[in-house]
Amino acid sequence: MKPLFAKGPSLGVRLLVLVVLSVALMVVDARFALLKPVRSQMSLVLMQTYWITDLPQRLYQGVASQFGSRTELVAENEKLKTENLLLQGRMQKLAALTEQNVRLRELLNSSALVNEKVEVAELIGMDPNPFTHRIIINKGERDGVVLGQPVLDARGLMGQVVELMPYTSRVLLLTDTTHSIPVQVNRNGLRAIASGTGNPERLELRHVADTADIKEGDLLVSSGLGQRFPAGYPVATVKEVIHDSGQPFAIVRAVPTAALNRSRYLLLVFSDNRTPEERANDAAQAQEAEDKQNGIAPIVPATVPKPAFVGPPAPAPAAAAPVATPVKPAAHSARAAKPAATKPPVATPAAKPPAAAPATTRQREE
């Protein structure tokens, strides 16, 4: 009798096929870039998933903000007013320093940016793998984000963009074990390499000499030597320095200045990619436009005429010197007069014979 339901492959065979297929997909994704377009398209669908999963928290924050007490709002308002006043006082000094820096750069014929262009991004997801420190932000390739772009928060550097999608990007944090950044001690300029440890609260400085001038509390800033991160941004603060007399390098541990586990709003830094010639031209055009606006006539460099070519200098008339010698006694005038009359003094074309030469010759003949 024929059974009503045909039997398919057993569950073990199905599991084995799925496992082999999964391993094959992971190998292809790790070794090749064939699945990159598929991942980009899937990110469009996952974007809606991120928005839906984040909706309850947004609703909670909206309701909490609506029912906040008036006393807390008044106290927070007073605190913000005080901070705003202090920041405005600091801003006045920073504005003067910025203008002075711009003038000095113009004098040096340099148009490097004083402040980099930044764009605000929001954190929308985190990598569930506990061994990798990666986050997802809501800015992607359509927003002008590029691979390797630095990311920072209000306190310091956080990491860099390592994967691009149309509307989202994946950021590798500083504390990941595969990440390193060149830094320098803000106090004395000592250079080092800060590497991630897998702990979101700790960085390590590799290959620091045991006699190096570094101590607890030193601020580490980006040095800009890797051509990836802009110079001058805070990275970490030295927490512990261990010296071992038997080891050539000291053990230096630092705490990141950025709130890697708490920051929700981030900044994407757009560096200046212009060539030095383009920067110089832009600076010259900006200076010319400013001079026209202020009514200052442009300075035209004076042109100096080139000297005409007159050839090599004529040699000194060495042969003309014997002509002006004093007259010898009459006893020897007969012999001396004859070669003087037949062989005139040799002179270069540029030198003229002295006017007294004919008179002296005539005196000898007499």
TrEMBL record:
Residues 317-350, 357-366 have a biased composition (Low complexity). It comes from the Bacteria. Residues 306-366 are annotated as: Disordered. The keyword Signal does not apply. Residues 124-269 form the Rod shape-determining protein MreC beta-barrel core domain. GO terms for cellular component: plasma membrane. One of its GO terms (biological process) is regulation of cell shape. Keywords: Cell shape. Pfam families: MreC. Belongs to the MreC family. PANTHER family: CELL SHAPE-DETERMINING PROTEIN MREC. This is Cell shape-determining protein MreC. It comes from Pseudomonas cremoris.
